[in-house]
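Why this split exists: single-chain examples teach little about how molecules sit against one another. For that reason, every record in the complexes split bundles all components of an assembly together and asks for one structure covering all of them. Below is a record exactly as it appears in the raw files.
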Amino acid sequence: MSNSCESIEVPYIASNLERCMCSRCPVQSKSSCALEKIENFKNEVSKLKEGKSPTPQNVPGVYCSAGEAFCKDLNVEKNCICNTCSVWKENNLNNACIFEHYCSHGRA
Ligand code: SF4
Ligand code: SF4
């Protein structure tokens, strides 16, 4: 019997960037690289409302869509909180072959 998981393409769009839970995740909480991006990202929120999405390099999240994190000081031993995210639920990422730790495993 084959294991039926799938590759799921999560849209890289403003509404997903806004809802992403990565900024509250313990995996990033001690990363100076991620914390700086999280702080800068707060200033991007007004642009998000216009439908403009910043480049993935500047976004400390939506790794399910954008792929692996640019920051290399994440603590991936900590639990991923993607399963608390509405983007995760909406895209049925529980069925994806990669269903957590997108920041280190890459996109869904
Ligand atoms: S599923 Fe995870 S990586 Fe994707 S938007 Fe939600 S918290 Fe971010
Ligand atoms: S992908 Fe998961 S583990 Fe990585 S920062 Fe986002 S919520 Fe945390």
